[in-house]
Amino acid sequence: xxxxxxxLGIVIVTALVFDFTNGFHDTAxxxxxxxxxxxxxxxxAVAMSAVLNLVGAFLSVEVAKTxxxxxxxxxxxxxxxxxxxxxxxxxxxxxxxxxxxPSSSSHALFGGLIGAAVMSxxxxxxxxxxxxxxxxxxxxxxxxxxxxxxxxxxRLTYRIGARADEKATKKGxxxxxxxxxxxxxxxxxTNDAQKTMGIITLALVTGGVVAPGSNPRCGSSSxxxxxxxxxxxxxxxxxxxxxxxx
Length: 246
Description:
Blueprint: H1 2-36, H2 42-57, H3 62-69, H4 79-99, H5 105-121, H6 128-162, H7 166-191, H8 193-206, E1 230-234, E2 240-245
Antiparallel strand pairs: 1-2
């Protein structure tokens, strides 16, 4: 029991380290425009982004549920697999940060999780349809949709700004940059901040602590709990014996 508890503790700490490295990329992405234009001071921008990311994490758990039970099949997956996935994602985050490359921490984590699961339990351990519909298609569609939306927003902004007073325009742009950056941080919280929630829940499921299909927010599930890999045995006379594998 002590062994599996130690592994879970290591995985949870590693997940938090991944979350920290995720901030190298995504907080900078969200607040880059407000800082570069002077709309907000760097410390103020980072603090606002952190608060809104935290708020966003509590608005929904759909992303966390996908990671904890949608991408891979929990059966046959061990806690060590989750640890390997996190290490791979952390190394990628650090490498891209050092090279100054914008990168998706989400897809780094997805890739690490899928690769570790395949190496551990084979291709049957991953849910192909979920990967296509919830990872691959959004990865391709996101820059296209965002690009089109940005083009339309830019055109609309120029039209509105051309008719306004210069002083009022600058004030409006400043407020718009702060508001849009705040919304990016809030949306980021509903997505990326939940990755760690989902990966910790998945670790608890693979460790036999919570039942498969558990809600990352409260740990409840309508499915029966999976038997733990560790079970207590009793010696003669009712005294407690050491924990052993079931």
